Amino acid sequence: MSQFHRLTIKDVRSETRDAVSIAFDIPRHLQAQFHFTQGQHLVLRTELEGEQVRRSYSICSGVNDGELRIAVKRVSGGRFSAFANEQLKPGQSLDVMPPAGRFHVELDPARHGHYLAVAAGSGITPILSIIKSTLEGEPLSRFTLLYGNRSSASALFREQLEDLKNLYLQRLNLVFVFSREQQDIDLYNGRITQDKCQQLFSRWLDVQKLDAAFICGPQAMTESVRDSLKAAGMGAERIHFELFHAAGDSQKRQAREAARAQDPQVSQITVISDGRALAFDLPRNSLSLLDAGNAQGAELPYSCKAGVCSTCKCKVVEGEVEMDSNHALEDYEVAAGYVLACQSFPVSDKVVLDFDQL
């Protein structure tokens, strides 16, 4: 799964003024590897100005759309997003990893389900895939989407969502919330906050009867919606969320620097990836296990390096590590010994990480 494949771009479509969607041509011999589940993402790699750049982007197509398409929204200072929006054309190629991620629930054609999705900005990308696939794959289920943007013009995939509404009139409920465009219903104006969620949930949504909720957007919004759902009686196991970015923790970095100065211990590290084991020494509280392994030539998989995408997921088979941040692994995975290498630092004399046990 950590291997990159060179894929040719089949189509580049302008979706809004600052976002494009990109479809890839999948060769026949790679179609099984690039079969995806709704809500998954791709890790892309290219070289910009002599430097290797990796980014993770969610798949926006439904599982039965017959194409593999992602969306890339331009972000301020974003090297890859600017490159994608300004320069990528059909016929060009990018290095792409097979689909990954667990931002979904298994579909059941016999289920009479009711799902909620809450998205803001480009967080709609995996949500669109989930809604498309669920409404088609579960013909008896319903979906409610709460989607926040600055205005209707900036709402990514708005036309596709409205087409879906026309196709599934009784099964899809769309609620657009705009912060800079006035709407007739005052509740639909502003940002998606915990207070707004409480008002919306109390007026027209029985949260306790929802089969699952999917949240994707800025970290503050995601946490507010999650907490609102829990307060309304929804079990944590039914709340699924995905972050594109996570706030850094400068205090932890400063603490590590101070600890390294006071106690310069060294751990013996072994990383196992693609059937190969590589051993090296690592001063504690210095580099993450991911950065240290790749500095030694291990070629370990990664994308965001922020504890968000789970590309660097691995299992601790010996020793003990400390994980600074985790926005990707479930509690049961952590209990089973899985960690995010980009956020993990050794705390024992010996540590063995296995990237092949997924």
Helices, strands, pairings?
Layout: E1 5-16, E2 19-25, E3 41-48, E4 51-58, E5 68-73, H1 79-86, E6 93-96, E7 114-120, H2 124-137, E8 142-149, H3 158-167, E9 172-178, H4 194-204, E10 212-216, H5 219-231, E11 239-242, H6 250-262, E12 266-273, E13 276-283, H7 289-295, E14 313-318, E15 321-323, H8 331-335, E16 338-340, E17 344-346, E18 350-354
Parallel strand pairs: 7-8, 7-10, 8-9, 10-11, 12-18
Antiparallel strand pairs: 1-2, 1-6, 2-5, 3-4, 3-6, 12-13, 14-16, 14-18, 15-17
Helix pairs in contact: 4-5
Provide the CATH superfamily of the largest domain: Nucleotide-binding domain of ferredoxin-NADP reductase (FNR) module
Radius of gyration: 21 Å
Shape: globular
The fraction of residues in strands falls at 25-35%
* Domains, number: 3
What structural class do you assign from the helix and strand content? alpha/beta
Succession of helices and strands: EEEEEHEEHEHEHEHEHEEHEEHEEE
